[in-house]
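CO-FOLDING WORKSHEET

Operator: S.A.
Ligand of interest: NAP
Run index: 249
Mode: holo prediction, single chain
Checklist:
[x] sequence pasted
[x] SMILES validated
[ ] output reviewed
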Amino acid sequence: MKINGNTVLITGGATGIGFALAQELVQAGNEVIICGRRENKLAEAKGKLPQIHTRVCDVSKDKDRRELFAWARSNFPNLNILVNNAGIQRMMDLTKGLEALAGEDEIEINLKACVHLSALFIPFFLEKKEAAIVNVSSGLGFVPLAIMPVYCATKAALHSFSVSLRHQLRNSPIRVFEIIPPMVDTELDRGGRDRRGQEYRGIPPAEVAQAAISALERNDFEVAVGTAENLRAGSRTNPEQAFQNMNKR
Ligand SMILES: NC(=O)c1ccc[n+]([C@@H]2O[C@H](COP(=O)([O-])OP(=O)(O)OC[C@H]3O[C@@H](n4cnc5c(N)ncnc54)[C@H](OP(=O)(O)O)[C@@H]3O)[C@@H](O)[C@H]2O)c1
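OUTPUT RECEIVED:
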């Protein structure tokens, strides 16, 4: 699809991969709207990239998702790309029982929000000449890291959802892309990576953003970036070995 002249909404676009994508898309000649929960992060992003539009929104909340859609549709009638990028990642020890589940809900943010926002935007996008839904999943959706059981499950589910959605929309103007990043150096799990003494912090978010834009341009609907390709391939050729390698620490 064309990669300029679009109007793009990126959830979680104030930091990390989302912000890198906002930068690349603005550079390529697109109008970009970002949303997130933290007003200060949105303001910081706008300070660095004054062309973008911002909106405070917690995608874990049904009401916020509906309001985001209504606001976007009336303020940006040309909106034609939704990027489901907002996500959180939690280490979770389920031997602790229900205590492990206290806190933010990965299922609501990483999966339910993507499904609900897709359903809200699809009828609106069906009226466009060309539109896209871009889901940001993860290599960990293909080979799980057991210390993050729910995170990996949400990303596996997002992959599955993307495959089915692409099939359902195959005769429509809406293309469904899945971008599968490897480990990326962002705020996500920065604390966890510190605690685990993990030296390697991943590739720069700009690399994922560039891969995403190139995927859109080539109509390459499922793109595994960098080492995420090894995970995707390993999950198909020898899933048991791939799981053991991922979890040997
Ligand atoms: N970093 C990696 O290694 C990696 C690898 C594979 C996949 N990914 C995926 O890439 C996506 C982007 O993550 P990132 O690495 O760029 O991390 P990040 O910098 O932490 O970005 C996540 C963004 O999502 C927003 N967000 C979180 N919960 C939200 C909510 N309930 N409502 C609205 N916005 C919310 C955050 O802003 P607020 O907190 O202000 O809301 C933040 O801007 C995620 O889906 C992640 O799973 C990352």
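REVIEW:
Residues 11-12, 14-18, 36-38, 41, 57-60, 85-89, 109, 136, 138, 181, 183-184, 186-188, 202, 205 surround NAP (CB under 6 Å).
The radius of gyration is 17 Å.
[x] output reviewed
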